[in-house]
């Protein structure tokens, strides 16, 4: 498993403006953005005991969660993802899904997953059967991403976090979501080293590393 370093800070709007200006001068915008940002819609999975949610709330050093995600309302490119955390190190595995396959998972039609060519799809199927994992809630937000080649660095600014509450039909563009937090999340990820130029650009003297979870925030209504 390839692990990347991850740190996260909850910041305010003034911090956002400052860091955006700094990063714009030294890093590069993600080429997939539209006007420097994109809209992310994810569907998170959990079991009846809220295992993923409780692992996050209780601060377990080793945890994982599954989600399905697409960007900018484009359902022609959808990915199943598994995020794993070991302390401050993270790993993300991904497998493509068609819109029809994603909808079938939402609808509980999952037998086809057992014969998928992608191990991650088969793993999710297995855990849906053995652990009771199922679609739980939609999480929407806006992201401003920056990249820096040395160290394979990715810095993101996330805000406008919204919850689908108990709605799981995340392919429906008319699914109602509501704002759940005015938090702005700064996240920095890198491989072997974090270049000083990025460390300085993202530095805030009075901000401590945090553990804000968009998924946990979106579960406030159940």
Automatic annotation (TrEMBL):
Highest taxon listed in the record's lineage: Bacteria
Protein's GO biological process: polyphosphate biosynthetic process
Name of the featured protein: VTC domain-containing protein
Annotated ranges, domain VTC: 4-218
Source species: Ruminococcus flavefaciens 007c
Source species taxonomy: Bacteria, Bacillati, Bacillota, Clostridia, Eubacteriales
């Amino acid at each position: 498993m390839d692990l990347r370093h991850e740190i996260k800070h909850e910041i305010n709007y003034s911090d956002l403006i400052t860091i955006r200006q700094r990063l714009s001068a030294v890093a590069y915008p993600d080429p997939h953005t539209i006007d420097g940002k994109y809209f992310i819609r994810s569907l998170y999975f959990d079991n009846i005991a809220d295992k993923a949610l409780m692992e996050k709330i209780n601060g377990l050093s080793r945890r994982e969660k599954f989600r399905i995600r697409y960007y900018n309302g484009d359902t022609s490119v959808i990915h199943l993802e598994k995020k794993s955390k070991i302390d401050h190190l993270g790993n993300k595995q991904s497998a493509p899904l068609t819109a029809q396959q994603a909808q079938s998972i939402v609808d509980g039609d999952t037998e086809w997953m057992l014969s998928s060519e992608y191990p991650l799809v088969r793993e999710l199927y297995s855990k849906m059967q053995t652990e009771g994992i199922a679609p739980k809630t939609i999480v929407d937000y806006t992201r401003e991403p920056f990249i820096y080649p040395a160290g394979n660095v990715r810095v993101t600014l996330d805000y406008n976090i919204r919850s689908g509450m108990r709605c799981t039909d995340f392919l429906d563009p008319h699914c109602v979501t509501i704002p759940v937090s005015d938090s702005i999340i700064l996240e920095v990820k890198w491989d072997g080293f974090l270049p000083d130029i990025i460390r300085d650009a993202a530095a805030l003297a009075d901000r401590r590393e945090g553990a804000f979870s968009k998924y946990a925030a979106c579960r406030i209504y159940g």
